[in-house]
Amino acid sequence: MYELKGKDLYSQNGEGLLLEYVWDKVNGDFIERVIFDIGCGDRFILSNSRHLRNSFDFTVLGWDKENGQTVTAENCTKSVSMPGIISIDIDGNDYWILDKQLPYYRPLIVIAEFNAMYTDSRTIKYNPDHVWQGDSYYGFTFEAGKKLAEKHGYKVIFQIADMNMIMVRADLIEGLTIPEVTYKQNDYFKLSDRTDWVWI
To answer: Does residue 12 or residue 65 have the better pLDDT?
Structure first.
């Protein structure tokens, strides 16, 4: 199993280094170095993309609600650029956006936040106006993420800090033995009393 050697200067848990490693292993240079960073914040603090931009000349196309750039299932395939990597962390409709983007863009790699508070397969109900309330009602669970990956021809190959999963297009790793990816359940936030989950 790959272990991070050090940490990049920007991401929360070394995600930038891990993306660099996976990009290299799947021979990413046959495709343009473009990363979609959905939920990019200020593009500096806790950034999954800045390491790739600064050190490997990736073009970063970033969107964040705080900057008035809300990404929804209705507008998530409007970009004419074709990303090699998609990074998403918006504490909300992540599942529904990836469900539209993966078959449309077919990126090599996806890094997506998952909800480690639940061990079953669920996601929040789609709502383009969703605003995270700081509780457990956000995103999708690890099991839902695995099913989403398989649905679109991807495989989950890593998780980092019980927080982010990395998916790779399955055709790029065909024939390789990938160890089972596991995680630990964590009660990061207060438990939501919302019952309008969608079971995957």
So the answer is: 65
